[in-house]
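U., I forgot to send this yesterday:
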Amino acid sequence: MQLEAITWQRMAERLAGHLDEHGSPAGEETWQRVGIDGAPAADTGVLAGHLADALRLRSRPALVVAAEGFLRPASLRFEFGREDVDSYLGAWYDTSALWREVFAPTDPGGTGRVLPDLWDPATDRATRSPYAELPPGGVVIVHGPLLLGHWFPFDLSVHIRLSPGALARRTEESARWTLPAFARYEAETDPAARADAVVRADDPRHPAWTGLTGPTG
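Result:
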């Protein structure tokens, strides 16, 4: 895998340009969906924020949606204990809600009314956030862990990869029980093969990436 050194800002500009080039045909303006996949230690929100800024500079409306805003209630997440790897992989994130509240409204013919978050894990209550009205031509940027194993309809996907050593160093002590889950995700899902671009970010100050190499690249 050949990697090119790049800044997060420049990467975002390249991604925004790609989205412009591969947008809907004239007269058929719809929405685009971007997935930025990576463990919490990968800080996927950083690239998501830079991409949203780059799109807005191109007069493209953009909405950032964090997958962690779609966690299931604690009673479901912790049904088999607070550190159950199988539950983390398959039961922590409300993928049905993401389909219903984020992807379905941005399908062709959709309403563009996207719910930016659903559940607050700190209070274990619904956030009751208002819907965001995203006009046609807008871009939804979903970021967070374990995104590339659910067949979400991303028009563009990026996987931010940390080596096992970097992932262990950058994961908070209280969350290190999730490390086997990410090892399984790498082995069973192979997110680097599914993504349109892969970023190596062992040192977040000096990312490097493959460029756009996937099916939409």
